[in-house]
């Protein structure tokens, strides 16, 4: 059985069309359609529903088989990497799931260190929410994911990277600019922009522990939109320092109450991961150990 047909099926599901899959795989559309049809005929089942309005969808049996197909492809990739390793030839692909602030602040420094040692390893990136990253890990779409401890399933192997403190963000002309630390009670009555996305629970916990209710003026899902609204002076917000320190329109201050999210790398099983993924974890451990030492002034 040709593994190329498995790759075609996974790519059609990922991209949502035979045409896009053909382009990504440098094949003709007819070749992709022919490969799928042959596999369906060989197995005696239909894998896809072709709907003019909804496009390409997996059948029920297709949904059942997809995780197994991805697992086979992952195993083939690991075999190829192990063979290449014995020949001192590096090859492989690492698929990484990440959320916005991790993409901007954590991923680049890891890639720089990794590619200095292993320039021939390729990467593919998927950006999403905490929940989407966990789903991608569980279904085999990605090999490695940036996650937040507390959200990550216990079934995954985790490598803690850093603690990301929750801070208050405000317009540069706000009175908080004169305060080295902002007391949480000083937010009482302050027009507040409440995040409804990934870190909402962290913000709610802070106010709950302080036995306060913020004066919510807006509820906004997108992190960048929140930062822009704060930068226009529409209100203040609380969010992760990792993200907010990159936003030029706002200033940030520490709160007098400490609350953080712990960012980690996750993979389904490090012991069964490919050589490239194992090395990615080793590099991440070294990079962030160095970051911690620098933070302590070592």
Q: In terms of topology, how is this protein built?
A:
Blueprint: H1 3-15, H2 18-24, H3 29-43, E1 48-51, E2 55-58, H4 60-86, E3 93-98, H5 100-105, H6 107-117, E4 122-127, H7 130-139, E5 144-148, E6 157-170, E7 181-182, E8 191-195, H8 200-209, E9 215-220, H9 223-231, E10 237-240, H10 241-244, E11 251-255, E12 260-267, H11 275-295
Parallel strand pairs: 3-4, 3-5, 7-11, 8-9
Antiparallel strand pairs: 1-2, 5-12, 6-10, 6-11, 6-12
Helix pairs in contact: 1-2, 1-4, 2-3, 6-11
Could you describe the 3D structure shown?
This protein is α/β, with parallel strands linked by helices. Among the domains are: 1-89, Arc Repressor Mutant, subunit A; 163-261, D-Maltodextrin-Binding Protein, domain 2. The chain has helices at residues 3-15, 18-24, 29-43, 60-86, 100-105, 107-117, 130-139, 200-209, 223-231, 241-244, 275-295; strands spanning 48-51, 55-58, 93-98, 122-127, 144-148, 157-170, 181-182, 191-195, 215-220, 237-240, 251-255, 260-267. The longest helix is centred in the N-terminal third of the chain and has 27 residues, at 60-86. The model is unreliable at 294-298 (pLDDT under 50). It holds the Pfam family HTH_1. InterPro entries: HTH-type_LysR_regulators (IPR050950), LysR_HTH_N (IPR000847), LysR_subst-bd (IPR005119), WH-like_DNA-bd_sf (IPR036388), WH_DNA-bd_sf (IPR036390).
């Amino acid at each position: 059985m040709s593994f190329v047909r498995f790759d075609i099926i996974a790519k059609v599901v990922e991209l949502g069309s035979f045409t896009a899959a053909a382009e990504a795989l440098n094949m003709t559309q007819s070749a992709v359609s022919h490969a799928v049809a042959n596999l369906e005929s060989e197995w005696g089942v239909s894998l896809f529903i072709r709907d003019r309005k909804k496009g390409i969808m997996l059948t029920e049996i297709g949904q059942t088989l997809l995780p197994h197909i991805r697992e086979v492809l992952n195993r083939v990739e690991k075999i190829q990497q192990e063979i290449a390793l014995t020949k001192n030839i590096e090859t492989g692909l690492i698929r990484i799931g990440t959320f916005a602030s991790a993409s901007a602040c954590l991923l680049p420094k890891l890639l720089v260190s990794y590619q200095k040692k292993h320039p021939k390893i390729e990467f593919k990136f998927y950006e999403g929410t905490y929940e989407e990253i966990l789903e991608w890990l569980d279904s085999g779409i990605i090999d490695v994911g940036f996650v937040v401890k507390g959200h990550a399933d216990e079934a995954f192997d985790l490598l803690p990277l850093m603690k990301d403190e929750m801070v208050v963000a405000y317009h540069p002309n706000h009175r908080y600019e004169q305060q080295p630390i902002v007391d949480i009670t000083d937010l009482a009555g302050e027009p507040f922009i409440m995040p409804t996305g990934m870190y909402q629970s962290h913000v709610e916990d802070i106010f709950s522990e302080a036995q306060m209710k913020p004066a919510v003026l807006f509820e906004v899902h997108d992190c960048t939109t929140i930062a822009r609204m704060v930068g226009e002076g529409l209100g203040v917000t609380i969010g992760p320092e990792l993200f907010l320190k990159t936003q030029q329109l706002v200033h940030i201050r520490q709160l007098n109450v400490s609350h953080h999210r712990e960012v980690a790398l996750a993979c389904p099983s490090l012991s069964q991961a490919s050589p490239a993924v194992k090395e990615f974890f080793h590099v991440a451990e070294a990079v962030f150990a160095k970051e911690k030492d620098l933070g302590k002034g070592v």
